[in-house]
Design brief:
The chain is mostly beta strands. It has one domain (7-121). The protein is built from two helices and ten strands. The relative contact order is 0.22.
Length: 122
């Protein structure tokens, strides 16, 4: 059974977004099933969440797993991502939080973000 949806069905939907290491594309999920694969996207009212259990497992095993998400309401998919200077990243070896790449500041909420290639932009 496929849970994949059409692009138009995802706009306005609250999703969990994560960079899919195998497909090299963003996976947009309802928390259980992938609904759409996107090269880029934008979302509003974003919570950046790291699951503690997955974080601990990544530290213990020394390899990546899906445990960090941007959660928000999708406003566009596969549109051009605007230029911005704020790059948001996550690295389990640097801590249990997302952070601003230029300042190192921990971030857990954003008004709006854009998913580009491998990174979130704000």
């Amino acid at each position: 059974m496929s849970y994949l949806k059409e692009k138009e069905e995802i706009i306005g939907t609250k999703v969990y977004a994560y960079w899919n290491l195998h497909k090299k594309i963003w996976s947009l999920s309802d928390g259980r099933h992938v609904l759409y694969y996107a090269r880029n996207f934008s979302m509003d009212q974003v919570e950046l969440r790291v699951r503690e259990g997955g974080y601990q497992k990544a530290l213990h095993e020394g390899r990546k797993n899906v445990h960090a998400f941007a959660i928000g309401t999708v406003t566009s998919i596969d549109d051009l991502v605007p230029e911005t200077t704020r790059v948001i990243s996550y690295n389990h070896q640097k801590g249990c939080h997302f952070y601003d790449k230029s300042t190192g500041e921990a971030i857990n909420k954003l008004e709006r973000c854009y998913g580009g290639e491998k990174v979130l932009l704000a």
